[in-house]
Write a structure and sequence with these properties.
Elements lengths: L5 H8 L3 H10 L6 E2 L5 E2 L2 H15 L4 H4 L4 H10 L3 H17 L3 H15 L1 H22 L4 H21 L10 E6 L6 H12 L4 E8 L1 H11 L3 E5 L9 H11 L5 E4 L1 H5 L8 E4 L2 H10 L1
Parallel strand pairs: 3-4, 3-5, 5-6, 6-7
Antiparallel strand pairs: 1-2
């Protein structure tokens, strides 16, 4: 069983820790345990309750009414939500629940159903990435078992690869993009999605993968001469320094445009060299690809 902090519940549910504490005082649905030093911690079941309650509350149900509902009624009310955004959030919550329960069969079934009905690109933007964004904090703080991360990551990776293999375009762009993750970065899902977007829009891709030294990028780039270098930075290792990386890659590739996206690019506020281009949102990535 996982043990979650109140901050974990805040990150996963969107409900502020202060509000969760008030719920605990006023209502009966949450009964956290406490450590010897009186710090709250929560079980898998309590996490799932908070996800359900937060979703119903967001879409119009009063907490006082939810508190009186049984588990079956709560589940029925969640299934009855008709708003598209609510349905997507419900599915993201279902993926989180499957992950904490190690129910990988149901996890994959949920993904497959959504991909079948909406296609791989919408599935990625509407449920896979929101799911990864929510649980990414748990990975960084080690509040989920590494086995859970590996199981989930491998399933998502398989779906992305299937999407890439099936992607095609009537367009044929004569500029290629070299995709890679620097040393210390192993979270490949974002980069694989960029691969899918590029391929589905007719852009040739040179895919190096994760944890690639800059000298290897340089070797391939000299042979293949890509129009752009592209990396997607999610959460690199403790020894990774973004300033040092930017300085190193601009020295090795003084004339090649370099594109960075992902969580680390969103948080970076220093001045960047002219050849470095940060893409801080999905829309900016799509616009960049359309401009190639």
């Amino acid at each position: 069983m996982n043990v979650f902090t109140i901050k974990d519940l805040e990150n996963l549910s969107g409900i502020k820790a202060h509000t969760i504490r008030i719920w605990e005082q006023r209502y009966q649905f949450l009964k956290p345990s406490r450590t010897d030093t009186n710090i709250r911690y929560y079980s898998n079941d309590e996490l799932k309750k908070v996800l359900n309650i937060a979703l119903l509350n967001k879409y119009g149900f009063k907490i006082s009414h939810i508190d009186k509902m049984g588990e079956a009624e709560v589940n029925d009310k969640i299934l009855s939500l008709t708003q598209m955004q609510a349905q997507q959030e419900r599915i993201v919550n279902d993926l989180i629940k499957c992950m904490v329960d190690l129910d990988m069969e149901n996890f994959e079934e949920i993904l497959d159903k959504y991909i079948l009905s909406r296609g791989i690109e919408r599935s990625i933007t509407q449920i896979i990435f929101p799911f990864l964004e929510k649980i990414g904090v748990l990975w960084l703080t080690n509040h989920i078992n590494p086995a859970q991360e590996h199981l989930v990551s491998n399933i998502v990776r398989q779906k992305l690869i299937v999407g890439i293999e099936g992607a095609s375009s009537s367009l044929s762009i004569n500029k290629s993009v070299l995709l890679f993750l620097p040393e210390g970065e192993y979270h490949e899902m974002g980069l694989l999605f960029i691969y899918y977007l590029l391929k589905s829009r007719g852009v040739p891709v040179i895919y190096l993968g994760a944890n690639i030294p800059l000298q290897d990028v340089e070797y391939v780039a000299k042979l293949k001469k890509p129009a752009y270098l592209y990396t997607h930075l999610t959460c690199c290792g403790q020894n990774f320094n973004l300033d040092k990386f930017i300085n190193g890659i601009t020295k090795k590739f003084p004339t090649t445009p370099i594109v960075l996206s992902g969580r680390l690019s969103q948080a970076y506020e220093k001045k960047i060299p002219a050849q470095i281009n940060f893409k801080k949102s999905y829309q900016e990535v799509v616009e960049f690809i359309a401009s190639i």
